[in-house]
Specification:
Blueprint lengths: L1 E2 L6 E2 L4 E2 L8 H14 L3 E3 L7 H8 L8 E6 L4 H15 L4 E6 L16 H10 L3 E7 L3 H10 L4 E5 L8 H9 L3 E5 L10 H9 L6 E2 L6 H9 L8 H14 L4
Parallel strand pairs: 3-4, 4-5, 5-6, 6-7, 7-8, 8-9, 9-10
Antiparallel strand pairs: 1-2
Helix pairs in contact: 1-2, 1-8, 2-3, 3-4
């Protein structure tokens, strides 16, 4: 367990990515969420763009909202749209507040506009003042955007791809960690390109500056497999040989 950056969210370092929920039934979603609770996994990440993910999670956590920290995100960039999305997310999750609301996939050319008068950032500040959200984060696939976000001090968390073959954010994650900005890893298995999920998770968790990785999981078995890594994520010599091989096979073309 550790705090997510300087927030008061004390989480397990393996979280849950809500993308795959779109592909399974509500009954199967309930089984996955129940297994998260059983394994003590308490960080759930979804998005307005993940079709039915928020709604399915909201149904699955009914009666156990206090067991989880909820994170979601929106592609909205203006005040009215972001304000609307926060209300939709609250309704979908069947909750009075969301622990972390994130800007979703911010491009470099969009970044500065977020903070202009009556744009999306002001809507999230307002929602925070009203107690509807607790923290504000940002996700991106652009390294310059994340670097700006860390320096600006306007965000409690960052989320960026990071795995055995995508390590370009290594120094940025270190800097964020030093500044108390929560570090969230998306695509820990490189979108499924890495077959050895256990090794992929060990690789990430061996980095002390990574707070949480959020693999997408759609079965209780996957939850158990990914959380088992928490018992021991120290890389062995054999692991390092495998990592070198994966980098040589995927790294140049991924």
């Amino acid at each position: 367990m550790r705090n997510l950056g300087n927030t008061n969210m004390k989480i397990k370092r393996v979280g849950f990515g809500g993308i795959p929920i779109q592909r399974i039934t509500q009954d199967d979603t309930n089984l996955v969420i129940n297994e998260l609770e059983k394994q003590g996994i308490n960080f759930i990440d979804s998005a307005r763009g993940y079709t039915i993910s928020e709604e399915a999670i909201g149904i699955a956590i009914e009666g156990k909202r206090d067991k989880f920290f909820l994170a979601t995100k929106s592609m909205s960039r203006d005040y009215d749209s972001m304000k609307r999305d926060v209300e939709i997310s609250l309704n979908n999750f069947k909750t009075d507040f969301i622990d972390l609301y994130q800007f979703h996939n911010v491009k470099e050319e969009e970044y500065d506009n977020l903070f202009k008068d009556k744009m999306a950032y002001s809507a999230l500040l307002e929602a925070k003042e009203q107690g509807k959200i607790k923290h504000i984060g940002i996700t991106s696939h652009n390294l310059n955007t994340i670097e700006k976000a860390i320096e600006d001090g306007k965000f409690d968390t960052i989320q960026f791809p990071y795995n055995i073959v995508e390590g370009q954010a290594d120094e940025v994650f270190k800097k964020a960690h030093e500044k108390g900005v929560g570090t969230i890893v998306m695509r820990p298995l490189a979108g499924g390109a890495i077959d050895d999920g256990t090794l992929a998770m060990k690789y990430i968790l061996s980095r002390e500056y990574i707070d949480v990785a959020i693999p997408g999981m759609d079965t209780p078995e996957q939850v158990r497999e990914n959380t088992a890594v928490l018992a021991n994520f120290e890389l062995t010599e054999e692991d390092n040989v495998k990592i070198t091989k994966i980098k040589s096979e995927l790294g140049t073309n991924f």
